[in-house]
Design brief:
This protein has 138 residues and is mainly α. The chain contains eight helices and three strands.
Amino acid sequence: MIELLEKMLVRHEGLRLRPYQDSVGKTTIGVGRNLDDVGISEPEAMLLLSNDIARAKLDAEKFVWFHKIDSVRQDVIVSMVFNMGLPRVLGFKNMLHAIEIGNWVETQKHMLDSKWAKQVGKRADELAQMMLIGEYRK
């Protein structure tokens, strides 16, 4: 019976994949999910995160060298793609070249010498350090 209820609610509420203002001005998404009053649960947030990580990893895997670097450095690239999107990461030409040749000192330098590093502060410091040493910060 739940499938019939779902179909009816989709028919009544509609299915919107981007946030919109409902008839009383509440930010809504999906099938009538009132984000202003209900928000999302932690499991829902983690499901969204999992999907977003998978999408960022698929984008990061477009770098020919991606699978040649260790998993920690892969995670740094995925994090940057997650944060900025692939088009902006592609703008880090010097950093990407340094990664391709395995020059981690230059990679760290180019990461920290960027507008992005100034914008995200400690995140950039942590990711640049991870890229330098190939280990998660403890």
